[in-house]
Amino acid sequence: MTKWTKTTNYIFIGIILSVVVIYGISYLTILKPLQEELVKAEEQADLFESSYESIINQTDDEIGEDLENVTVQVPNAKSPDNVLINFQKIAQTSGVLISSITSGGGTMADEDDDDNTLNSTSYSLEVSGDNLEQISNFLNAILNSERLMIVENLNIYQADEYAALSLSVTTYYSSF
Question: What is the three-state SS of 87-129?
């Protein structure tokens, strides 16, 4: 048999250390992020399961309250005047100025019943304010509005003296 020399020992120790370093780098760059992603996916699954359980376990009274909330958010008539008044009130409380509002075409989405349809109307707004805080307040007020409004497009521009917002919003109404 051949004898192990000092050089052979150093090479062997070097190979072992290289394997340990490669494993450590692989663990930190591949395995640890995958484990974190798995934990996040499990948390999301738990959240969805708990949401599903709470929906399944709702009583008829709670479902009725939810339907009343939806009825407030999705009125029975188109009522563009109410939408425009709502936009103006939100603008006044936020301290911004609406320079233009245009209404786009509406769409109809038929449900299973011929009596119930969900319709939508799009609005485009040009808004300006003194700073981004006012624009942010305006957007938050739209999102917290009683009426269901979905923000489709959003462009914000900030200059030294003012901030501007270009916004497309879709509102919904039902027809019974």
Answer: HHHHHHHHCCEEEEEEEEEEEEEECCCCCCEEEEEEEEEEEEE
Phi, psi of 127 (to 5 degrees): -125, 145
174 in Cβ contact with 115 (< 8 Å): no
Specify whether the CB–CB gap between 141 and 134 falls below 8 A.
no
pLDDT tens column, 51-65: 778 777 766 666 666
* Nearest-5° Cα angle at 60, 55 to 66: 65
SS3 160: coil
pTM over 0.85: no
- Give 150-170 pLDDT, tens digit per residue: 888 899 988 888 899 999 988
Residues 6+ apart with CB under 8 A from 37: none
